[in-house]
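Can't paste images in this forum, so I'm doing it all in text. The chain is below; anyone willing to post the predicted structure tokens underneath?
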Amino acid sequence: MSKQQIGMIGLGVMGRNLTLNMERNGYSAAGYDLNAETRKSSEEKFAGKDIKVFDNISEFLNNLVTPRKIMIMVPAGKAVDSVIQDLKPHLHKGDLLIDGGNTYFKDTDRRMKELQDSGILYIGAGVSGGEEGALWGPSIMPGGNPDGWPLVKPILQAIAAKVDDGTPCCDWVGNGGAGHFVKMVHNGIEYGDMQMICEAYFLMERVLGLSPEEMHDIFLDWNSGDLNSYLIEITSKIMSAKDPETDKPMIHVILDTAGQKGTGKWTSQEALDQGIPAITIASAVFARMLSALKDERVKASKILNGPDMKFKGSEIELIEMIRKALYASKICSYAQGFQLLRAASDEHKMNLKYGSIASLWRAGCIIRAQFLDKIQAAFENDPNLLNLLLDKYFKSAIEENQQAWRKVIATAVELGIPVPAFSTALAYYDSYRLEQLPANLLQAQRDFFGAHKYERLDKPRGKFFHTEWQ
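Text version of the structure:
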């Protein structure tokens, strides 16, 4: 009896869709899941296809060609460790495990090292694109043990999304936890993108009183220019959707509390660890946390006052300024994300290729956008580029949009509309462009109360001094 070319453990929506994607691209597959109902529903979905579902882990493994290639699609954390422990006694030297979940990158690095002595290969592959992407072509970011990449490269590149020239949005990212690290930063950037779009929406609704139908047309128009992206595209569609129960705009029946699964928080924590000011990404995480305080906000809205002002300018001009503010803020958010990639690559010796990473995100993933072509070009032009803001194209784009960006934030402040992502993006830009910041006073304060010392402008860097302030 012929054996299957790849195995899938975890037949939830993502695992099931990835398995269907593999079979459609010519690879026979075996599936396994602990849950009997999940196995049954998967068998129904797999009917007539070269996919076999097993209820026994030994049979599952015995029906795979060697060296065995097994993808794990279970919740990140203890579940992954549990699967590995169950598999390990049955695996042989040269077998390959691929974790495709939203795993913390340090866990991936640890697991790879723990399996090395036994000769079992391990890859952590970030997968982005949601349910639809998993079925029709996601962006895949593999990293881990490089010896495992040739075994699975043809399969992963076959199922990945393709850009217009046919290039797959899947290539080797780097060693250790690199693949999951890049996916984590992708998700952090995604947090920023989504928050900025929400701020644009909120300004148009609260300041201009635009209807969802009107905003549908605006987002549709924006999607034909510099802001062309999956998130702008789906925002346009969301604005035109109606609730079948009430016939109200769908956006007006959804409770304003946002959830999160942790990758944005991880990105912000890693930025703190690396000393990278990813303040726009962090502001997006905190914005979700603030939204979750719904009951408190309802009470506060009856007690706390804000500006009682009306916008008196041109509606058309403000809409265009919001578009420009969104684009400028987006540039700064991505600049922060790529700064973090650079710092972590140096710290963890990942040897990341930043232009290649931008290329992996051009199709299939949630942040796919026309904009990423510009990022790829920037790093191809200068692989050692310190910051996207220093690239000629992005410098020019900021200059073109800067005045409108500032006016939008000023208008929001005057009218009491929170725009944390727009504001922190501008603060990042202004801080980065200034030769001198007020940290000299901060160092004086630290030295005053704690004798923490300071460097001097008129002395070589690295020499520290203390003043007896009292």
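The chain has a mean pLDDT of 95. Strands lie at 6-9, 29-32, 51-54, 69-72, 96-99, 121-128, 139-144, 174-175.
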